[in-house]
Amino acid sequence: MLLAKYPRRRYTHAKTPIEKLTHLTKLLNGPTIYIKRDDLLGLAGGGNKTRKLEFLIADAIRNGADTIVTGGALQSNHCRLTLAAAIKEGLKCQLILEEGVATPYNPNANGNNLLFNLLGAESIKVVPHGSDMLAEMHALGEELAMAGRTPYVVPIGGSNELGSVGYAACAQEILQQSFEDGLVFDDVVVASGSGGTQAGLIVGFHASSAPINVHGINVSRPNETQIPLITNLVHQTADYLNVSDNHLADHVHCYDGYVGEGYTIPTQGMIEAVQMLARTEGILLDSVYTGKVMAGLIDLIRKGAFKKEDNVLFVHTGGSTSLYANPTLFDDDLFVL
Ligand SMILES: Cc1ncc(COP(=O)(O)O)c(C=O)c1O
To answer: What is the tens place of the pLDDT at every residue in 197-224?
Structure first.
C-alpha cells in the first residue's frame, strides 16, 4: 500500500494522540483501554470526516470542482466538516439535510446546525425522513451543472473507497505510534455507520499484516445490512489501494446490540457511557456515535469479551458539537463516581 501516490490535501498537522484511559481501565477492571483522539483532527471541530475529506476534496479539486454538494442528518458532523473543508479550499458548499423520524428541521437549533450557518453554507435544502439522499444530491449536482457550475458530490458520511483511504492511513499512523511507544494493540473499537472508518482500518491493518481485531459498533443498522455494507466497502477499498483481498471479509466484525431503537435515538447505555467518560477522564463523547460505541465497549468488557492483559484502542471519531443541540439529554445521572 503506497498511500503517498494518492492525491491528498492536509487538514491536520500532526498525528492525533493516543492516550491511556487510566481511570476508566481501573473502574471497569478489564483490559487496558486507550483512546485515539481523532476528535482532535483539524477543520472546524475535528472528527473522523477530516481524514476522509483529505482524499475526497483532493479528488474534487483534481476534477476542477467549484461547488461541493453533500448531505446528512440534521446534526450531521459530516456536513459541518465538509463545509469547513470547502471553505478552506475557496469552494462553495451546498447541503441537503434529512429530517429525523420524530425530529423536524428547526432552523434555530444549536450544535452543528448553528455552525452550518456560521460557516456560510451556500444553500441548505431540507428533505423529509426517508428521502433518497443520493438521488437528492445528484439532482442538485445536475441543477448546478446546468447553471454552469462544476459540482462534486461527496457521498453520505464520505464513505466510498476514496474516503476510506483516510482510515487506511490512520491504521498506518496507529501502527507507527504503537511501534514508537512499544505498545501492542490487540483490538480496536470503532463506530460503524456509513462504514468508511471501519473499512479503512480493516484494509490498513490487513495491508501491514497487523493482527489487530477491528470491532465495529453499529450506530444505525442491524448486522443483516451492516455487515454486507462494510464488506463491500472493504473490497472496494482494497481494490482501489491494490491490497490483496485474501480473506478480507473474515475481518468484518459488527455488533448491533447497542443501536437501541434507531439512529440518533438515545439509549440508557449511551447516557451512562457519555457521563462515565466525562466524569472519569474529562473527555466529551457524543450521543449519536461515540456514546453508543463506548456503551458497546463497556458492555463487552463487563461480559468478559477481552482478557485482562489485552490492550484495547477506542477510536474517538468526534461529534461532541452535537451535544449542544439537546441540553436536557443528560439531566438524569446514570453514572456517578
Ligand atoms: C462523530 C462520528 N463518529 C462516527 C461516525 C461514523 O463513521 P462512518 O460513517 O465512517 O462509519 C460519524 C459519521 O457521521 C460521525 O459523525
So the answer is: 999 999 999 999 999 999 999 999 999 9
Query: Helices 161-181 and 196-207 meet at what angle, rounded to 10?
Result: 50
Whose C-alpha lies nearest to ligand 1, atom 13?
Answer: 157
pTM beyond cutoff 0.70: yes
Domains with residue ranges and CATH for the chain: 3-47+159-325 (3.40.50.1100), 49-158 (3.40.50.1100)
Q: CA 273, CA 294: separation in Å to the nearest integer? A: 6
Q: Which atom of ligand 1 is nearest to the CA of 78?
A: 14
Cell of 3: 498511500
Q: What is the pLDDT of residue 232?
A: 97
Task: For 79-122, write each residue's pLDDT tens digit.
Answer: 999 999 999 999 999 999 999 988 999 999 999 999 999 999 99
Tell me the CA–centroid distance for residue 77 and ligand 1, in Å.
Answer: 8
150 three-state secondary structure: coil
Mutate to test the pocket of ligand 1, among 48, 95, 192, 220 (most ligand atoms within 8 A of CB): 48
